[in-house]
Amino acid sequence: MTEIICKDLSHTYPNGVEALSGVNVSIKQGEIISVVGQNGSGKTTLVKHFNGLLKPSGGNVLVGELDTLEHSVGLLAREVGYVFQNPNHQIFAASVKDELSFGLKNIGIEEGLIEEKVNKIAEEFSLTEYLDLNPYRLGFSLRKTVGMASIIVMEPDVIILDEPTTGQDFIGIKTIRENMRNLSKEGKTVVVVSHDMPLVAEETDRVLVMCETELIFDDSPDKLFANQEVLGKTNLKPPQISSFFSDVGLSSSDKAVLSIEDALKAIK
Amino acid sequence: MTVNKGEFVGILGSHGAGKTTLCLSINGIIPNMISADMFGNLEVAGEVPPRIPVRELATKVGSVFDNPEFQMSQLTVFEEVALGLQNLGVDKDTILNNIGGALEMVGLKGFEERSPFEISGGQQQRLAMASALSMKPEILVLDEPTSNLDPIGKEEVFTVTRKINQEEGLTVVIAEHEVEVIAEFADKVVLLEEGEITKIGTPEEVFPQLVDAQSKVGVRVPQITDFASKVPKKFGKELPVTLDQAIKGYKK
């Protein structure tokens, strides 16, 4: 069980740019939560504190019992896995198999068990046929899947996904959404940083909205997509279905319709 | 397929369907820089792309790719736009004139002395567009230009793309996953599946046909079209493909 707690978290980059100011938030084990906001609002800076990739300039971050100021990324990464937006920033091994094994080797898992875990994760993510290939011979979408699988194989309690659906087609997005749901079913905490509002609306239970270094909203997606003030301030565009229901006066002013399923129920 | 002068054409398809190959054939990068066996006929702005050098064709067909950073090489925005023109051996006055015009068109006037690497993604992509536009092309080909941008960046690029199409009359061919935007802007959409064109028509013609085939063809339809298809009695004869059409056509 790993709860993440940020207390008065602030972060100033070495060049003097303030990226986070006074953020208070706690995330319980098993939550599926999104972090949204424009580029430069502080979303990625915030989640990079969850596994110690960045350390607070002010305040504290607790990952389970561990204060991130006192522990290395290496140790924290066992509890909190971070899947990068661009798989090219993450992938370096010569084969998909090596890429999936790397983290496990690093934490001293014995070889027989590594093979077992790698084969299992490859199957779950439909990567079995690519195990011997160089990841760079795969298309972007599949390479992104490799990046995700290489973190999930480590079985962290918390998984952070940075823009998982960017540049993905219909099938890629569907696969990523299924993976998120499965992880959540297994009791993992899933934190997703995203500009993909239908994803936020349909797959997450709670949304954190970052705006100019501050956390300005922390509630459910149906409240967010009905909150004109926050939407206006952050330039976030609700899913088309939410806008339609609000424009034709079918949804209440404090609770947006989030999905086609919701919408169909609402007009019956 | 035929693209008429001044049209805005959206290319749809899953990864691997052939969108990029089509874009790179139109601007001649295939087969002149990436070799390939080509069959059939292709004519672009009166030229046959395989027969003329890419840089010459660039004066008729401008190109914008998915990762603007890969296209940047100079120290300032001004130099970045100047590069292509200098390589063509254009005279100084024309260069200065074209750079000014191109930066104006994409809304980057005043950015001349900034570094291309210290501006936002949306600005970088508009800079890539300015570089292409500085050569005064008749056609602009954009291959997933907004895949790596945030919502504001996407909006910026779409707004400029629409402006150069409507105000400057440029023909636009754009491969894009944001179907809501394509539905709103495009005169024509082309669906590619495994290297073949399987549908071609207006967004109003094509998207309603794809509602039940989204998984098969690997292309989404606008969320509002998907919804309307499930309650057709609430809408008129034709399914809406944009939010405006849906709001106007909805029967309470």
Short description, anyone?
Chain A has 268 residues and is an alpha/beta fold.
Keywords:
heterodimer; A: 268 residues; alpha/beta; Rossmann fold; six-stranded mixed β-sheet; 11 helices; B: alpha/beta; 13 helices; globular
What is the SS-derived class of chain B?
alpha/beta
Q: Total helix count of chain A?
A: 11
What would CATH call the homologous superfamily of chain A?
A: P-loop containing nucleotide triphosphate hydrolases
Would you list the SSEs of chain B in sequence order as H and E?
EHHHEHHHHEHEHEEHHHH
Second-tier CATH architecture of chain B: 3-Layer(aba) Sandwich
Q: C-alpha Rg of chain B, in Å?
A: 19 Å
Identify the CATH class of chain B. Answer: Alpha Beta
The helix fraction of chain A, in percent, is: 25-40%
For the largest beta sheet of chain A, what order do the strands appear in spatially? 6-7-8-3-9-10
Q: What characterizes the major β-sheet of chain B?
A: 6 strands, mixed
- Let me know the number of strands of chain A: 10
- List the domain count of chain B as a whole number: 1
Instruction: Return residue spans of chain B where pLDDT drops below 50 for at least 5 consecutive residues.
Output: none
Head-to-tail CA distance between termini of chain A: 41 Å
The overall pLDDT average of chain A reads 93
Shape, per Cα inertia axes of chain A: globular
Order of strands across the main sheet of chain B: 2-3-4-1-5-6
CATH architecture of chain A: 3-Layer(aba) Sandwich
The 3D shape of chain B can be described as globular
